[in-house]
């Protein structure tokens, strides 16, 4: 109702302005302050500039590290020639898989009848929980608490009940709609975090608690104590390529999978589990993904497992690529969070203590929610030093599709709480929020609440650089003037600093492998455990190999990520893809360099082609594997108190100016300045692309 009235008033202002301009109404009939209420937003012309460190070029000509090299498949992607999973040409006898999805949030399945669907010509098979043993049907990335097909009960809308294999997509989807499912509904249906708290619907072993210092004493001594809460909703991944998989039986007991996943090894492992086969009979391959953002770290199994099952049972190639609406319905989102906090601080705004409860909405299964919650608990203070801390964390079980990894993995949600807290403190002590931020910033040498020493902490420099670059104070003065002159349009400016820990939260994932093959003509084929998701990982890894071998990048090629080249890989996630895989590739290159050293000594003036041709005739291996494990991490308060949780941190500061239309709530970001400290960039063009893309 308010919106309708606002739009009516907007049209009144627009008409009045035209009448004033035409001289029909007196010029001061509507106050000048009100007139801009008639304006609408128009897409501004984009202007941007990127600043990065130039690398001194005293290195040999083909050392590409630190240079803004073009993404290895950028031209193919721009022209549409790049091949994605569903672009693989159709094979002879191929079938398409379509899903039968739950239409209830919490119910028992009383009847499942596919006879009408199977009667259609071209429909080959229907698969459901009946086709698997209970053990085979139980899957999950860490805890096997999910099912390939719903087992008598559905826990969320859009859960997979069965799958139809048919001659083509249209037919398969039509047949899937003909499968009759009858339910008897169950109570309660829990959707929100508040409902989960009311019903005490938590996963076992929660809450988790983390304490540092003397919280009660600090509250007693604080000048001010303030309690509040904040919340953050979910977010759809919206990768351009939805989940997709193609499975091809290579023999009666071998299966090849092309899958749009960030974690091929996990797909291989779960397919082996569901088909009761050893992993060495299953190959999972991923050439490139059309975006992932975490949404394909563990949820790829929803499509890959039924497709693999159908291909294996029918001994025919099977494919499935979700439509956008199916993808959004079936897969989870970013984790919604609720934070309840109590903070103690001095009259000047120095924070001395914080007691915070973190609740995340996991959806119906655990997936990676425990790890997302842990990262949120470790990032709730963002860049601010709080000497006394008590953090509690709850993973809430609800009747929603299982929420999953999403860019930042709990970090952004935690930092969101910190930014609320710092603004509350500044408001209560009536000081400029920038002063309160700087007063509370961590300094180099400080310890976090999980006992990690900050060895280098450049947040103050990022902060100062960003203020200067954005002309913050000039913009602030301009905003004050603008807001005074316009009643229905308002502008604001905000600054947010960040601190993000780089490492997997689970110790054993911080490892990677690589395989390097050098051919007699001097060309090099690289394989590593990471997946190219569009983020430029392959480009960076090629740069690492080019420097390590001292050859031009044009001689190096990465074909794809495949479980038969590098086994037992970690997911490409947690911002460690280039760290782990780059180091593994360097390890492999160093082994090759050792073997080539005597030949280079004997032929100091030789070319790369001559150096690699000779070992072939001398019967020296030109293939090497590499491996890397991140050292000195794996903190645990009892068992490993001296280790670090994160390998290092990246820091950044962003400043945005936003304008809102107070009548309609419409808004526009007018300008943004970002300063990121990412150490020495391997490829500034790609790193800036990542930062801009994330923004």
From TrEMBL:
Domain of life: Eukaryota
Domain Aldehyde oxidase/xanthine dehydrogenase a/b hammerhead, first and last residues per copy: 79-187
Cofactors: FAD; Mo-molybdopterin; [2Fe-2S] cluster
GO molecular function: 2 iron, 2 sulfur cluster binding; iron ion binding; molybdopterin cofactor binding; oxidoreductase activity
SMART domains: Ald_Xan_dh_C
Keywords of this entry: 2Fe-2S, FAD, Flavoprotein, Iron, Iron-sulfur, Metal-binding, Molybdenum, Oxidoreductase
UniProt cross-references to Gene3D superfamilies, sorted A to Z: Aldehyde oxidase/xanthine dehydrogenase, a/b hammerhead, Aldehyde oxidase/xanthine dehydrogenase, molybdopterin binding domain
InterPro entries per UniProt: Ald_Oxase/Xan_DH_a/b, Ald_Oxase/Xan_DH_a/b_sf, Ald_Oxase/xanthine_DH-like, AldOxase/xan_DH_MoCoBD1, AldOxase/xan_DH_MoCoBD2, AldOxase/xan_DH_Mopterin-bd_sf, OxRdtase_Mopterin_BS
Keyword Amino-acid biosynthesis (UniProt): no
SUPFAM superfamilies xref list: CO dehydrogenase molybdoprotein N-domain-like, Molybdenum cofactor-binding domain
Record flagged with keyword Iron-sulfur: yes
Pfam families: Ald_Xan_dh_C, MoCoBD_1, MoCoBD_2
Record-linked PANTHER family: XANTHINE DEHYDROGENASE
Similarity comment: family membership: Belongs to the xanthine dehydrogenase family.
Record protein name field: Xanthine dehydrogenase
Organism of origin: Drosophila buzzatii
């Amino acid at each position: 109702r308010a919106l309708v009235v606002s739009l009516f008033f907007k049209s009144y202002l627009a008409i009045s302005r035209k009448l004033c301009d035409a001289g029909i109404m007196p010029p001061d009939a509507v106050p000048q302050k009100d007139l801009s209420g008639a304006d609408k937003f128009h897409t501004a012309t984009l202007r941007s500039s990127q600043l990065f460190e130039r690398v001194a070029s005293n290195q040999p000509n083909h050392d590409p590290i630190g240079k803004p090299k073009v993404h290895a498949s950028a031209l193919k992607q721009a022209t549409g020639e790049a091949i994605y999973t569903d672009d693989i040409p159709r094979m002879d006898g191929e079938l398409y898989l379509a899903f039968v999805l739950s239409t209830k949030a919490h119910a028992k399945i009383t009847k499942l009848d596919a006879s009408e669907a199977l009667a259609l010509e071209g429909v080959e098979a229907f698969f459901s929980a009946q086709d698997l043993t209970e053990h085979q049907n139980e899957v999950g990335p860490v805890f096997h608490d999910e099912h390939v097909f719903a087992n008598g009960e559905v826990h969320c809308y859009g859960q997979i009940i069965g799958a139809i294999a048919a001659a083509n997509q249209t037919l398969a989807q039509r047949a899937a709609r003909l499968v009759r499912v009858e339910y008897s509904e169950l109570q309660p249906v829990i959707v929100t975090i508040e409902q989960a708290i009311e019903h005490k619907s938590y996963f076992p072993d929660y809450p988790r608690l983390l304490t540092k210092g003397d919280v009660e004493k600090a509250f007693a001594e604080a000048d001010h104590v303030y309690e509040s809460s904040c919340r953050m909703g979910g977010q759809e991944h919206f990768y351009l390529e939805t989940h997709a998989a193609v499975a091809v039986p290579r023999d009666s007991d071998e299966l090849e999978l092309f899958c749009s996943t960030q974690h091929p090894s996990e797909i291989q492992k779960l397919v082996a589990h569901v088909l009761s086969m050893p992993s060495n009979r299953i190959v999972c391959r991923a050439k490139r993904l059309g975006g992932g953002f975490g949404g394909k770290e563990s949820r790829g199994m929803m499509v890959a497992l039924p497709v693999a099952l159908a291909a294996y049972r029918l001994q025919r190639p099977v494919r499935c690529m979700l439509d956008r609406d199916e993808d959004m319905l079936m897969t989870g989102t970013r984790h919604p969070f609720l934070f309840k906090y109590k903070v103690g601080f001095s009259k000047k705004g120095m924070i001395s203590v914080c007691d915070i409860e973190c609740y995340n909405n996991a959806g119906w299964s655990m997936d990676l929610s425990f790890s997302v919650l842990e990262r949120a608990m470790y990032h709730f203070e963002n860049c601010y030093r709080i000497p006394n801390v008590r953090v509690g964390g709850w993973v809430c079980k609800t009747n929603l599709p299982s929420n999953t990894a999403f860019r930042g993995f709990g970090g952004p949600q935690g930092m969101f709480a910190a930014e609320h807290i710092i603004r509350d403190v500044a408001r209560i002590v009536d000081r400029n929020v920038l002063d309160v931020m700087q007063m509370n910033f961590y300094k180099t040498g400080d310890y976090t609440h999980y006992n990690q020493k900050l060895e280098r902490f450049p947040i103050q420099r990022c902060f100062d650089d960003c203020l200067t670059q954005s002309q913050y104070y000039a913009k602030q003065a301009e905003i004050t003037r603008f807001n005074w002159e316009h009643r229905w349009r308002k502008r604001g400016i905000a600054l947010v600093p960040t601190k993000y820990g780089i490492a997997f939260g689970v110790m054993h994932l911080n490892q990677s492998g690589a395989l390097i093959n050098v051919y007699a003509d001097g060309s090099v084929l690289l394989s590593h455990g990471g997946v190219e998701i569009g983020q430029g990982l392959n480009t960076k890894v090629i740069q690492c190999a080019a420097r390590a071998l001292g050859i031009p990048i044009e001689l190096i090629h990465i074909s794809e990520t495949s479980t038969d080249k590098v086994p037992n890989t970690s997911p490409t996630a947690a911002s460690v893809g280039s760290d782990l895989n780059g180091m593994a590739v360097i390890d492999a290159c160093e082994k090759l360099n050792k073997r080539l050293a005597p030949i280079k000594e004997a032929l100091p003036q030789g070319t790369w082609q001559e150096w690699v041709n000779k070992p072939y005739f001398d019967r020296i291996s030109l293939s090497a594997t590499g491996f890397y494990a991140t050292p000195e991490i794996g903190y645990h308060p009892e068992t490993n108190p001296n280790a670090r949780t994160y390998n290092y941190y990246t820091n950044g500061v962003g400043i945005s100016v936003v304008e809102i239309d107070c009548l309609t709530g419409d808004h526009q970001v007018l300008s943004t300045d970002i300063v990121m400290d990412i150490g020495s960039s391997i490829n500034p063009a790609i790193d800036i692309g990542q930062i801009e893309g994330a923004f």
